[in-house]
């Protein structure tokens, strides 16, 4: 059957068909993805009022794309105390944040209790705030560093108040590219296994893909299909987030960056291919807010949130270090012709703005 007709008929694509998607022009992909998005969400565009907290940048691993971890390129190591983390969470909560998104580097010096204790401290003081914390890469690091299996670390997360897992650390699943990008970090099968175990406990999570560096289009398709396969089994992924690679202050040499057309095509392909993951997020910190707004017409139904402060992508050049003012954010979504819907971390609708 013709590829376009098959997509329009909501028929699942095979790997071979998926590998032909980038050959379609942007207009065709955009119309197909927009139709799918509209069928599920109409004119709604989701966001949340959230705060990113990155409590330490001291890292045992060396990912070539990372500008955040303390290294030769970023010689300013820091580690927050639990009191500092709580203070940030309290301020954000007072300003309307419903979620703290807590992601750190892999700090070998602070101990497992520092990681888990931070969640407990926030949860005890602010039981209503949703804690989205620990990427699968951090879970794997803690497991290896402290000699516990994944199940034990995951059960500790739950016992200490973590509500959902963010999608970080997925990068690109292809083993050869991964070995070059971030040797020593969680393997692709490890990343998928951790999310599977998390989902098996009735919990939800997100999935990312870091693209626009040395990977090929086939690697992106392979990445999305591995997620689609796991989602068929667990159903636990809420959102897929293609992260556009930021190039400053790191050790990765990249010759050719994706154009806006290719970024939009990637969002549209994600919507088309991931028929079982409800939300496709244009994370404005890496796409720029301008492109994220346009991405709403190319399959994306979620723009993440106000962020308030962000250290990982901004270290590599993104304009996200101070987040976005709520009024500006909502105004931009409205001006683009969409209905801003504030959601909680699990996509329950809280308020139509
Ligand atoms: O895994 C690191 C990425 C991720 C760079 O789950 C970079 O809702 C671009 O996962 N250029 C962490 N990206 C952030 C993350 C995330 C963000 C927003 C929402 C959610 C969610 C998750 O940041 C890492 C890595 O892939 N990253 N360096 C860089 N130079």
TrEMBL record:
GO terms for biological process: menaquinone biosynthetic process. CDD domains: Radical_SAM (cd01335). It is an enzyme of class 2 (transferase). Pfam families: CofH_C, Radical_SAM. This is Aminodeoxyfutalosine synthase. It comes from Sulfurovum sp. enrichment culture clone C5. PROSITE patterns: RADICAL_SAM. Belongs to the radical SAM superfamily. MqnE family. It catalyses: 3-[(1-carboxyvinyl)-oxy]benzoate + S-adenosyl-L-methionine + H2O = 6-amino-6-deoxyfutalosine + hydrogencarbonate + L-methionine + H(+). InterPro entries: Aldolase_TIM, CofH/MnqC-like_C, F420, FO_synthase_su2, MqnE, rSAM, rSAM_sf. S-adenosyl-L-methionine binds at residues 65, 171. Binds 1 [4Fe-4S] cluster. The cluster is coordinated with 3 cysteines and an exchangeable S-adenosyl-L-methionine.
């Amino acid at each position: 059957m013709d590829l376009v007709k098959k997509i329009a008929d909501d028929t699942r694509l095979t790997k071979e068909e998926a590998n032909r998607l980038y050959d379609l022009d942007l207009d065709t992909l955009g119309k197909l993805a927009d139709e799918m998005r509209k069928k599920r969400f109409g004119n709604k565009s989701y966001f949340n009022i959230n705060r990113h907290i990155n409590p330490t940048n001291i890292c045992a691993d060396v990912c070539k794309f990372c500008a955040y971890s303390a290294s030769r390129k970023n010689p300013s190591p820091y580690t927050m105390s639990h009191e500092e983390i709580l203070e940030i969470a309290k301020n954000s909560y007072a300003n309307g944040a419903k979620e703290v998104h807590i992601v750190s580097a892999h700090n070998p010096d602070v101990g497992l209790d520092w990681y888990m204790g931070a969640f407990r401290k926030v949860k005890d003081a602010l039981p209503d705030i949703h804690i989205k914390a620990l990427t699968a890469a951090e879970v794997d690091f803690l497991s290896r560093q402290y000699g516990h299996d994944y199940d034990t670390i995951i059960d500790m997360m739950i016992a200490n108040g973590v509500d959902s897992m963010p999608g970080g650390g997925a990068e690109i699943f292809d083993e050869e590219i991964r070995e070059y990008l971030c040797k020593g970090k969680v393997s692709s099968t490890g990343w998928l296994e951790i999310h599977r175990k998390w989902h098996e406990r009735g919990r939800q999570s997100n999935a990312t893909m870091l693209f626009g560096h040395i990977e090929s289009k086939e690697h992106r398709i392979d990445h999305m299909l591995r997620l689609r396969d796991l989602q068929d089994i667990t159903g636990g992924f809420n959102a897929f987030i293609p992260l556009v690679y930021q190039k400053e202050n790191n050790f990765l040499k990249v010759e050719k960056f994706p154009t806006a057309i290719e970024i939009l095509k990637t969002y549209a392909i994600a919507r088309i291919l991931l028929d079982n993951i409800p939300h496709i997020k244009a994370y404005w910190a890496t796409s720029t807010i301008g492109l994220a707004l346009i991405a709403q017409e190319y399959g994306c139904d979620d723009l993440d949130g106000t962020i308030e402060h962000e250290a990982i992508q901004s270290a590599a050049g993104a304009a996200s270090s101070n987040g976005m003012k709520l009024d500006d954010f909502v105004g931009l979504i409205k001006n683009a012709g969409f209905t801003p819907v504030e959601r909680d971390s699990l996509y329950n609708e809280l308020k139509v703005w």
